[in-house]
Amino acid sequence: MNCPLRVSAGSVLMAVVVVFLQTVKQSPVTVRDALNQAMDEELERDERVFLLGEEVAQYDGAYKVSRGLWKKYGDKRIIDTPISEMGFAGIAVGAAMAGLRPICEFMTFNFSMQAIDQVINSAAKTYYMSAGLQPVPIVFRGPNGASAGVAAQHSQCFAAWYAHCPGLKVVSPWNSEDAKGLLKAAIRDNNPVVFLENELMYGVPFEMSEECQSKDFTIPIGKAKVERQGNHVTLVSHSRFVGHCLDAAVVLAKEGIECEVINMRTIRPMDVEAIEASVMKTNHLVTVEGGWPQFGVGAEICARIMEGPAFNYLDAPVTRVTGVDIPMPYAKILEDNSLPQIKDIIFSVKKTLNI
């Protein structure tokens, strides 16, 4: 007599669970909008925060990342600058030393070469050289790496360049969750942070939960994320190429090869422990990046694994998938062959597994 009642109660419980899960809403948010949300919320939260850079105010930003912020916060918080990276980066560093929390946008990180003295010698080293008395809470942000059809002078990945320098934190987000949570954490950090976005990802939508869209959501700098579980090979990447790794993993899964995909999120400090834990499980490692091979992010990961406890777990040498060691060509077919493609990742995984 009690069985029907138990079934009925179970059905009711299941219906309640379904309703609860439906309340945890997911909605698509582009990377551009996630960055915009992060800056908007931090500008509102802390009056010391301000944004400066070329065309960030009245034009809403070259890539519309700062859309609407000038109208909301005005000329004192959203500042258009002359085309002088050395000049406005220096102003931003000085403002950070004076107690403000600037967000300094480079229209592309290729132009940050004009300001590298300010970033390295002024921002990165001051906290150390002042014995911890003078923090420099500043975020240098903008698109990094190759876009499309912009040739050699606009196509470098600066992850390895800036991660080489002590005193900087270097962040390289992939999706909308990364972009929002890490940018908010970077703005609140008392150290200079180089925040490397990707132009080709700005318009890409990703599902974000209500929790991720809340004003309290942050992601700790220095922690990687396992985007896909696997037990045959570890793929480690950052920025746009995390997506390539996930796409390659889907193809390889159809052949019975399960890839564990790690989204680095932060280049410096590097979450070596997360990579080591994965390698100890899969016994194989492939690194993927859009930058050049020599002294690259993948090269550093190889060194860390060789020097650490995970080395004894490797069943094959680490394989690197990188950009080609040349200045970026302009022609599209040459450009495509100069950057890692999904087929290159698949080939490298099979090579590593000796398949």
TrEMBL record:
Residues 29-204 form the Transketolase-like pyrimidine-binding domain. GO terms for biological process: glucose metabolic process; pyruvate decarboxylation to acetyl-CoA. InterPro entries: PDHB_mito-type (IPR027110), THDP-binding (IPR029061), Transketo_C/PFOR_II (IPR009014), Transketolase-like_Pyr-bd (IPR005475), Transketolase_C (IPR033248). It is found in: Mitochondrion. GO terms for cellular component: mitochondrion; pyruvate dehydrogenase complex. It holds the Pfam family Transketolase_C. Keywords: Carbohydrate metabolism, Glucose metabolism, Metal-binding, Mitochondrion, Oxidoreductase, Potassium, Pyruvate, Signal, Thiamine pyrophosphate, Transit peptide. It catalyses: N(6)-[(R)-lipoyl]-L-lysyl-[protein] + pyruvate + H(+) = N(6)-[(R)-S(8)-acetyldihydrolipoyl]-L-lysyl-[protein] + CO2. Residues 1-26 form the signal peptide. GO terms for molecular function: metal ion binding; pyruvate dehydrogenase (acetyl-transferring) activity. Its cofactor is thiamine diphosphate. Its EC number is 1.2.4.1. The pyruvate dehydrogenase complex catalyzes the overall conversion of pyruvate to acetyl-CoA and CO2. The pyruvate dehydrogenase complex catalyzes the overall conversion of pyruvate to acetyl-CoA and CO(2), and thereby links the glycolytic pathway to the tricarboxylic cycle. Heterotetramer of two PDHA1 and two PDHB subunits. The heterotetramer interacts with DLAT, and is part of the multimeric pyruvate dehydrogenase complex that contains multiple copies of pyruvate dehydrogenase (E1), dihydrolipoamide acetyltransferase (DLAT, E2) and lipoamide dehydrogenase (DLD, E3). These subunits are bound to an inner core composed of about 48 DLAT and 12 PDHX molecules. Interacts with DLAT. This is Pyruvate dehydrogenase E1 component subunit beta. It comes from Mastacembelus armatus (zig-zag eel).
